[in-house]
Amino acid sequence: MIACAPMGGYQRLDSHAATGPLSSDVWRTGCCASRHRLTFVSQAADAQGITQQLNLQSATAVVKGCRTVKKADMIHNGLQPNITVDSQTYEVRVDGETDNQRTG
User: Fold this and answer.
1) Is there a contact between 82 and 95 (Cβ–Cβ < 8 Å)?
2) Helix (H, G, I), strand (E, B) or coil at 51
3) Taking the mean position of all CA atoms in its chain, how far away is CA 49?
4) What was the pLDDT predicted at 44?
């Protein structure tokens, strides 16, 4: 699914040239992404018709009771590992193990 792509300004480059002339491409967002996305809004925003005011193209869902949700409550994102980065070697450790140790 294309979310954004350059429009116009395409130029063919000479196969013997190192670089071609720069062009001023204009990027345009696609319309497919809005059909496959869900925008969460508060109950107050929904009551005020924010979807129509902002002309949202995506489907909306009203959220409630989310102020008390903690990371541990998220069934697919409940881990809270201890992550450290060595400032000299930039080695990243997750719960004391490097990425190489964890994947094998």
Assistant:
1) yes
2) helix
3) 26
4) 92
